[in-house]
Amino acid sequence: MKTYLDYWAQVATDLFAQALAGEPQFAESLPRPFTAGSFGFAATISGDLEGQFFILLDGSILETPLVGEGMDQKAGWAEILKETCNAAAGELLARSGKKCRVERFEEAPGQSKVTRAFELRSGDRAWTVLVREDLRAAAAAVSAAKPAAANAPASRLSPGLELLLDVELEASLRFGSREMPLGQILDLGPGDVVQLDRHVADPVDLIVGDKIVARGEVVLVNGNFGLRVTEVAVPEKRLESIRCLF
Q1: What is the pTM assigned to this prediction?
Q2: Are residues 94 and 198 in the same domain?
């Protein structure tokens, strides 16, 4: 059975090729000594799995602008690696049904023990990436609480509403919006960037029938974008989204 680390490696291979400059290759390798200035990050995981997941990078990787020219390379790596950890949680859920999420992602000192080693190669340069997986199944008390939730009374539905439960509705994600003069819209061309009113760390909206029914974090699932729900409207509010159909 695949572990969280297995899914992380799969996500990192795809994401690094897409997000980093030069389309570098990422593959498992033998550990190699680091140069001075190595740095790392720790993701604190909770849910069906709990613990920490560590990523340590060779400090010389900061000398190459893999995350973009003119950008803070270390901060850029923090964002990309956090995204890989979130996406790995999404893959784990999709493949095994185990729920987990990244509670915190922060800079962490180097680790003396590693679980697996990888190599990131771009052109004639190569860097070592060390990973340590320190995760375990959540305490039995977490799973024991699930039957109690199953016995909770279901939300009452209006008479006859059960007949609509199989109706298919179109759902979409809204990353943000911006008001623009018509002249600016007509002047848009390939390569132009439109800045939205939402920060990259803000949750995105799940929209059904012009109503927000949930919010969450964007993840990668089987190579596609997905949404890990963090907030959800009560059923009565969600039902308002279908009023436009009648």
Answers
A1: 0.59
A2: no
